[in-house]
Specification:
single chain; about 240 residues; 8-stranded antiparallel β-sheet; 5 helices; about 20% strand
Length: about 240
């Protein structure tokens, strides 16, 4: 009888111990599964970050490599600038590949959609690609205000309707282009004093009346229209 009384507590302790181990094993399995899932999630996130970084990381150092690669994958040459005063259709030149690729790139990421025509000079130009919006500044800060090498070998001229890249004139001996800002020649005789000074990389093929409407707007002393003319740029396929 005494032996039986001693055995029962031992059996009970063994059963409790086994139960604890069983629960512990299951919990360990769950934790292992959760941990593995976390690893998989982390890997997916890392892959997304890497992909985004590779496709969206243009800067001063890799500008030529980035735009060359981007241009090979994005071969469009037609864009439409939509404004409240009408549309302007532009053909981008294939023999200015860096500037063409850059304009397509900024169009597709939506940069130009945050900008306006901020300078208009009658019988000369309308200039766009900038604004006072915070969104515009965020884009420019994100891409570090990189510069593009000039593409003068094509000998494109500043004829009526020519599309060209703005640039800094000071401390810029190689005449590198500002990637964000552009201008369109409104003077019917052209703007040939700028030939060889700025890269011409496209031309207007329709919408000349819209250009005339924009250039006729009243401006402040800084040549900025008193009523902003914002744009939306659509890449035509």
């Amino acid at each position: 009888m005494l032996r039986q009384l001693l055995i029962y507590p031992i059996l009970i302790l063994l059963l409790i111990s086994c139960g604890k181990n069983t629960v512990s094993d299951k919990e360990n399995q769950k934790l292992e599964i959760i941990h593995n899932n976390d690893v998989n999630i982390d890997e997916k996130v890392k892959k997304k970050v890497i992909i985004k970084k590779e496709s969206d990381s243009i800067d001063t150092k890799n500008v030529v490599q980035f735009l060359t690669k981007y241009g090979n994958k994005n071969k469009e040459t037609l864009v439409v600038l939509k404004t409240r005063l009408g549309n302007i259709k532009i053909k981008l030149y294939e023999n200015t590949p860096l500037h063409r690729a850059n304009f397509i790139f900024l169009s597709k990421i939506g940069y130009f959609d945050s900008t306006c025509f901020y300078r208009v000079v009658p019988d000369f130009v309308i200039q766009g690609g900038n604004s006072e919006r915070i969104k515009t500044m965020r884009y420019r800060n994100k891409y570090r205000n990189y510069k593009m090498p000039a593409e003068f070998k094509t000998n494109r001229k500043h004829k009526y309707g020519a599309l060209a890249a703005a640039r800094d004139w000071k401390n810029n001996p190689h005449k590198k282009s500002n990637p964000f800002e552009f201008y369109i020649i409104q003077n019917r005789k052209g703007g040939h004093h700028l030939d060889g000074e700025h890269t011409v990389f496209g031309e207007v093929i329709s919408g000349f009346s819209t250009i005339d409407k924009i250039v006729s707007l009243k401006t402040g002393n800084d040549e900025w229209p008193l009523n902003d003319v914002f744009m939306e740029v659509e890449v035509a396929r």
